[in-house]
Amino acid sequence: MYGRHEDGSAGDANYGAIGSGYKTYRQPDPHIAQFILDALGDAATVLNVGAGAGSYEPVDRKVTAVEPSASMRAQRPAHLSPAIDATAERLPFPDRNFDASMATFTVHQWADLGRGLREMRRVTRGPVVVLSCDPDALEGSWLHVYAPEMIAVEARRYPAMTAIAGALAGHVEIRPVPIPLNCVDGFGEAYYGRPERLLDPGARLANSAWSFVEPAVGERFVADLSRDLEDGTWDDRYGDLRRQPFFEGSLRLIVSRP
User: Fold this and answer.
1) What is the pTM (predicted TM-score) of this model?
2) d(CA 54, CA 121)
3) Going residue by residue through the chain (258 aa), what tens digit of pLDDT does each one get?
4) In-domain check, residue 178
5) What per-residue string of b and e applies to 1-27 under the rule 16 or more CB within 10 Å gives b?
6) Residue 249 domain-assigned?
7) How far apart are CA 158 and CA 160, in angstroms?
8) Residues spanned by the domain of 40
């Protein structure tokens, strides 16, 4: 079980330390957002669990947000409702209270995955929608070549698709979500065709996995990637990605209906 950090973060990452510039680099991407909106269907009331700064919250529904990190709650824009300080494992709502619920890039942070997902199902009448990454697909990115330690951390933290599906039960569908070339949600694979962006320390900090590896790993990553970009090695190996409109990496949408 993970403990809570000083700012209230309930997962393994301390967002009080790494989350200050999160929303600068992690904006909701319209292409990815459409997958979520389609899965939510016509739900009028939506619960967003592990809501962070509010990425991917639909603005045309009544949304209730839950977020344990004070740092992340403070970054929510004014047009979104304030988030409730609570965790996925103990949702303070009655049974079947919401038409739908969602959780994006958060389940790998939860102290008890099964309990959190069962809580989402308990309070939801309709679809439960989870955006996460398949740990078995993470090694398909060039990042694995340059920062295998970081990818190994990600693979250990992200739960298997079968674990998520098993906890949600009901009718479960797992959908690959292709990542667009100019993705504005800066998780690691979002920069598949824009490697220079990951030389920015803020871009790496917005991906919590970098906080779990030694600083020397990041320093080596920057040195190796900078060298290979300068002498053309990266483009010789991966340059076609700069013109590839979508990358089918590890991003998955898990949709459970009762």
Assistant:
1) 0.87
2) 21
3) 344 434 343 455 444 444 456 678 888 999 999 999 999 999 999 999 999 989 899 999 999 999 999 988 998 989 999 999 999 999 999 999 999 999 999 999 899 999 999 999 999 999 999 999 999 999 999 999 999 999 999 999 999 999 999 999 899 999 999 999 999 999 989 999 999 999 999 999 888 889 899 999 999 999 999 999 999 999 999 999 999 999 999 999 999 998
4) yes
5) eeeebebbbbbbbbbbebbbebbebbe
6) yes
7) 7
8) 15-257
CATH classification at residue 211: 3.40.50.150
Provide the 10 A C-beta neighbour count for residue 159: 20
Q: Compute the distance between CA of residue 137 and CA of residue 119 in angstroms, rounded to an integer.
A: 27
Which residues 6+ apart lie within 8 Å of 125 measured at CB?
96, 98, 99, 100, 258
Task: Give the start-end residues of each E strand in the chain.
Answer: 45-49, 62-66, 100-104, 128-133, 171-176, 179-180, 246-247, 251-257
Q: Is residue 192 part of a domain?
A: yes
Q: Is residue 102 helix, strand or coil?
A: strand
* Residue for token pair 């490697």: 195
Amino acid letter at 6?
Answer: E
Residue 5 resides in a domain: no
Q: How far apart are CA 236 and CA 252, in angstroms?
A: 29
Q: What whole-number distance in Å separates Cα of residue 180 and Cα of residue 109? A: 25
For the chain, the first-to-last Cα distance in angstroms comes to: 28
**Residue 199, Cβ density class (10 Å: 0-12 exposed, 13-18 middle, ≥19 buried):** middle
Domain count for the chain: 1
